[in-house]
Every structure is written in structure tokens, then in C-alpha cells.
Design a protein that fits this description.
By secondary structure, the chain is of the alpha/beta class. It is 41% helix and 21% strand. Helix 1 packs parallel to helix 2 and helix 9 runs antiparallel to helix 10.
């Protein structure tokens, strides 16, 4: 099979209409580069596979029997990619003309850059936060929102209007570009993450291998933030984020720091269980998940 400039990998789980809208936006954008689209379906029960095959017959479909998670689903697409570069594209995104090509062009012009992400927009064209920092004890203690306000250079965010590409620690996996060479060197996404922080971990590994990561403020993609996951399963989503944080710290921080994080989180949850008001019940359920041995959540959307 012939090589293309870009492999667009979209993971879906019971979000048929979002996937179809995303695919339509790719076609309407008339990309100025050669590309392929790979839809990885995580065992959807809403006829996603059949509808994609019928309405977009050129799309490559990887149909999985069950939901294996966002990272693992993307890996199944990356394993069959033909592109010089790949982009992980959420099903709840709308591609705008010029946005994807700008990211491909930036990678081509900067051979030391391993990953890049565009500016994600809300449907009303306001900016979303799409820059990630690797979590630390400080960020877990005081919150990234505070750090972004007080230390904007160290913690870049949508609060700043950048006049050019900015080097960052990680970009959001809703639209993350990576060159094939980097994927071959550092490996695929860590499948221990089901959903959350898998892209931050991936970018962390890229940077550790000597590659740079950039955010492009003048390349745009619309992201219908949370449509595919958080609104459907809010409690499971929160629990999965706790689990992902633990995985990241266990992998990438010292054991004392990892244990300190766990102590900090449990203190917050205990306080929330007592003082959380209407959310106290939710905190108690999260506490019960910890007490049950932190089992992997099942049925969480990966889209």
C-alpha cells in the first residue's frame, strides 16, 4: 500500500452521529495533503461500523469486539497506519480547512519535533485549554488553573494569546500529531491507561527521548468537549482519572512522590465525603472504589 502524508485515527464507542459528523468535516475540509482515515470501533452497539462503511466507503475500519480503551484503540489504528505522520483525532471534533495541514507542515519543517497539537475551539470559536503539563505534587495540591494564572510561562494555557508556536510538555489527545519515526522509537501508547493522561505519558516519553512537543496557536480544530464521555458517565469518568493519575505517578515519579500523591488524594476524598455537600455521595463512592482495590472501570466511553 502506498505511503500517505497523514493517517487520521479516530476511536469510537457508541457515538455514531459524532463519528459521521467528524468524517463529513474531514471530507468538506478538502485537505491539502494525502491522507487516510482509520476508524477504530470499540465494540459499539449503535451500528457505527455499518454506517461508516456505507457513508464513507474509503475509510479503513478496525472493528473490535469490545471497548479496550482510548489508548489501546488508537494503538490498533497506529499499527496499520500508512502515513509519514499520524493524528489521534477525537470523534467529537470538527475539522476546519487548513488546520490539519498546518500541523503536518510544521512537523515536516521541524525534524526535531516529535508531536504537535493545534488550538482546539469550542463550537462558538472560543479557545479551549489543549496544552498539558505533566502532573506534579504541586499541581495536584493547588490545581493547574491556579498555576496557569500565576505562572503562565511555566504553565501555558488558553489564557495567553501566543503569536507563534510554543514548546510545551504535552498536548491534548483530542488532536495530537506524531511522526512515524517517533512512534517507532518510543513505542505505542501505554495501554495501562484506559482513558486520561495516556497522551501526557506518551509526550513525556517523547521528550525523554530527545524530541520536542509544540502547540500551534494558529491551527484550529473544533472540539465538542466532553460530548462523548463525561456527560454520559460522569462518576466513572472521575474514577478513571484517579486511576490514570496513579499510573502516571507510579511510572514517572519517585516512589515517595507517588505515595505522597495517594495520601493527598485520599485526604481530599475524605474531606469531600464529609464536607462535600451535594457531592458528598459521589466522594463516598470514589472512596468505596479505593477500598475495593481500585478495580478498572468497565464501560467507560473511549471516543
Amino acid at each position: 500500500m502506498n505511503e500517505v502524508d497523514l493517517s487520521i485515527v479516530i476511536v469510537a464507542w457508541n457515538v455514531r452521529d459524532l463519528v459521521l459528523d467528524c468524517l463529513a468535516s474531514i471530507a468538506d475540509a478538502k485537505l491539502g495533503c494525502t491522507y487516510e482515515v482509520i476508524v477504530v470501533d470499540n465494540g459499539s452497539a449503535d451500528a457505527t461500523v455499518e454506517c461508516v462503511a456505507r457513508q464513507f466507503p474509503d475509510t479503513r475500519i478496525v472493528a473490535l469486539p469490545k471497548n479496550i480503551g482510548f489508548g489501546a484503540g488508537n494503538n490498533r489504528g497506529l499499527e496499520v497506519m500508512r502515513g509519514r505522520h499520524a493524528v489521534l483525532l477525537n470523534s467529537d471534533t470538527i475539522v476546519l480547512p487548513g488546520g490539519l495541514e498546518a500541523c503536518v507542515r510544521f512537523l515536516d519543517e521541524h525534524p526535531d519535533v516529535g508531536a504537535v497539537g493545534p488550538q482546539l475551539l469550542n463550537p462558538d470559536r472560543t479557545k479551549q485549554n489543549c496544552i498539558h503539563n505533566s502532573p506534579t505534587l504541586v499541581s495536584e495540591l493547588v490545581g493547574q488553573s491556579f498555576l496557569r494564572r500565576v505562572f503562565p510561562r511555566r504553565w501555558p494555557s488558553k489564557r495567553v494569546d501566543y503569536d507563534g508556536p510554543v514548546e510545551v510538555e504535552a498536548v491534548l489527545g483530542a488532536c495530537l500529531f506524531a511522526r512515524r519515526e517517533v512512534i517507532e522509537q518510543v513505542g505505542l501508547i501505554d495501554e495501562d491507561y484506559f482513558f486520561f493522561l495516556e497522551e501526557t505519558d506518551w509526550c513525556h516519553r517523547m521528550r525523554a527521548a530527545g524530541w520536542r512537543v509544540f502547540h500551534l496557536p494558529d491551527a484550529f480544530v473544533i472540539h465538542l468537549y466532553g460530548e462523548s464521555t463525561k456527560k454520559k458517565l460522569p462518576l466513572r469518568t472521575r474514577i478513571e482519572y484517579y486511576r490514570s493519575r496513579y499510573i502516571f505517578f507510579r511510572k514517572n515519579r519517585s516512589r515517595p512522590v507517588y505515595l505522597a500523591l495517594r495520601a493527598l488524594v485520599l485526604i481530599k476524598i475524605l474531606c469531600g465525603s464529609v464536607l462535600g455537600g451535594r457531592r458528598a455521595g459521589e466522594y463516598r463512592k470514589i472512596l468505596a472504589w479505593h477500598a475495593a482495590g481500585e478495580p478498572a472501570t468497565s464501560g467507560l466511553a473511549a471516543a
